[in-house]
Specification:
By secondary structure, the protein is mainly α. About 60% of the residues lie in helices and about 5% in strands. The protein contains 20 helices and seven strands. The strands form three sheets. Strands 3-4-5 form a three-stranded mixed beta sheet. It has a two-stranded antiparallel ribbon with strand order 1-2. The longest helix is centred in the C-terminal third of the chain and has 27 residues, at about 455-480.
Length: about 550
């Protein structure tokens, strides 16, 4: 238990230290108690940037991971001891406690973690960037920045299993941020402004309380909801738009589908004054550099700027397998539309995607999952609206602004695009959450409450207490029921508990020119020797150029 707690603490200090380096030393922003959460969120972003940059030249091995750890904690030490901000350490301890309950004895997300999340982290730990890596496994082409954030926790101080901790820490940070913001607003009797944080606390705890369901999706949802908070924030200072650009860019790196934010960003840009001055803001310049590095990384790994969008591939590159890319582009969309449950098999996979032919199969299968997961949220939102309506003092007839309706239309557009392209609940839960929460905000915006009104406080506190108790009770029971297992960390080596502390060994496929990869013969690679694939390959060529590994398909 103590080993996991210590590991969470170290991971927290590293990510917060990265945020301090970004905010205090790179952007020259003074750290205050108000900016603790923003600094921490930016720590995830800056850590990801540093690892992407370093991996062009070095494997993210124990030496590099330890250097990142030392410098990050050094930044924190300067902040804590020279400026005597002991409150920061107390906040970090709260994050450690929440993260421990979330992650202890949890599983990694299956099967994706074993298929490509963990194998890719292993590749980062053992290799600098590999050209044509997607030719070993197509999923290596559309990897998330999440894997880069996990990679440096391969160091000499904490166990390698700690690479699972950043995702749990992100949830803890997000929930703590929501609670802190809610508490400040409710103290000021700002019931309308506090409502958004109250709703998001309850819904986020309900939706994201199970670590084994995280994968690359939940961190994306958390940052999208965070973006939503920034967008509707009333504190529109000079960093309002740069913060939105920074988070939006990071969202694209988390999930390429988030490119749909582009139109929204363009709209917000045209609303800004002094547009040219905004474009040279440090955060926007940093975001542009980060996005450029990421696109170059994508191009190096797959031959495509965004994989598997075939129109964004350079076909003339030797590493580009355009046939496979087109196939994955089509099949990825079809599988998200329940192709696996399509029993008639009259249509070809490319025809199944067209003209909403998939609706019937999707409606009979995955739509039921969406109903099961999201209807409780709708019931909760309706109940809260009803209670607020009963407790209002009066309705202020001031109309909602045009901007409110434009935001509403954009949030609706996100849902429509998600539904048309990739209608899996785990891809779109944050779109649904943001849309319906914003709907409630618009409906209740003109409600006025008495400053002496206690009923609203009772309502908020009741639901918050229930949510917190449910979270800690559920996760405490899981911990208690698994105490005999001994290892508190999620297993990264195998789904078999007996093998959870050692790497699995797979067949080594060696090329004549000293290149190699590991073939797992259909099994999950998990965190094993790299590069590992479960796919049987018989037409792959290996080469080296300027000491970089290159895999490409035999023409």
């Amino acid at each position: 238990m103590s080993e996991l707690i210590f590991a969470i603490l170290i991971v927290s200090l590293v990510i917060y230290g990265q945020g301090l380096a970004f905010n205090t030393y790179l952007l020259k922003c003074k750290e205050t108690s108000e900016s603790f959460f923003q600094t921490f969120f930016f720590g995830f972003i800056f850590l990801g940037f540093n690892v992407v940059l370093l991996n062009f030249f070095f494997p993210i091995n124990k030496f590099i991971g330890t250097l990142i750890l030392i410098f990050s904690i050094l930044f924190v030490a300067i902040e804590l001891f020279k400026k005597k901000k002991n409150k920061i350490f107390k906040k970090i301890i709260i994050l450690v406690i929440i993260s421990f309950f979330l992650i202890a004895f949890s599983n990694v997300y299956r099967p994706d973690a074993g298929l490509y999340h963990l194998p890719y982290i292993s590749i980062l730990n053992e290799n600098k960037i590999i050209f044509g890596l997607s030719n070993l496994h197509f999923r290596f082409g559309h990897i998330s920045i999440n894997q880069y954030i996990s990679a440096p926790f391969n160091n000499h101080l904490i166990p390698i299993e700690s690479l699972s901790i950043p995702a749990a820490l992100l949830f803890s940070l997000f929930i703590y941020f929501l609670f802190s913001s809610f508490k400040k607003l409710i103290k000021k009797n700002e019931f309308n402004n506090s409502l958004i944080f109250f709703l998001l606390i309850i819904i986020s705890i309900y939706s994201y309380n199970r670590f084994s369901e995280y994968g690359n999706d939940t961190p994306t949802h958390i940052f999208f909801i965070l973006l939503f908070i920034y967008i509707v924030s009333k504190n529109k200072n000079e960093e309002y738009f740069p913060n939105i650009i920074l988070i939006s860019t990071f969202l694209v790196l988390l999930k390429p589908f988030m490119i749909i934010l582009s139109l929204f960003i363009l709209y917000l840009f045209f609303k800004q004054k002094k547009k040219l001055d905004i474009l040279i803001k440090p955060k926007i310049i940093f975001s542009s550099i980060f996005l450029f590095l990421w696109l170059i990384k994508n191009l190096s790994v797959s031959g495509c700027l965004i994989y598997p969008i075939s129109s964004l591939c350079i076909k003339s590159l030797i590493i580009t397998d355009i046939e496979k890319t087109i196939n994955e582009e089509t099949s990825g969309e079809a599988w998200s539309k329940d192709w696996s449950n399509y029993e008639e098999k009259v249509l070809k996979i490319e025809d199944y995607n067209k003209k909403f032919r998939w609706i019937k199969t999707w409606q009979e299968n995955h739509f039921k999952i969406i109903i099961e997961k999201f209807v409780p949220i709708l019931i909760f939102l309706f109940l809260i609206y009803f209670l607020l309506f009963l407790n209002k003092k009066k309705i202020n007839r001031e109309k909602n602004t045009i901007n409110d309706y434009i935001f509403f239309l954009f949030f609706l557009l996100f849902i429509l695009l998600w539904f048309i392209k990739f209608p899996l609940y785990r891809y779109g839960s944050s779109f649904l959450i943001v849309f319906f929460v914003y709907l409630i905000i618009l409906f209740t915006k003109n409600f006025e409450y008495s400053k002496k009104e206690k009923n609203l406080r009772y309502i908020f506190n009741f639901f918050l207490i229930i949510a917190v108790l449910a979270f800690f009770t559920k996760n405490s029971l899981r911990i208690y029921n698994n105490l005999t297992l001994g290892n508190y960390f999620p297993s990264i080596y195998s789904n078999n508990i007996k093998n959870q502390n050692k790497k699995l060994k797979f067949q080594k496929i060696v090329f004549g020119n000293k290149g190699y990869y590991f073939f797992s013969n259909g099994k999950l690679c998990m965190y094993s020797e790299s590069p590992c694939t479960h796919v049987d390959l018989n037409n792959i060529v290996f080469n080296r150029t300027h000491n970089y590994k290159v895999f490409y398909k035999k023409k």
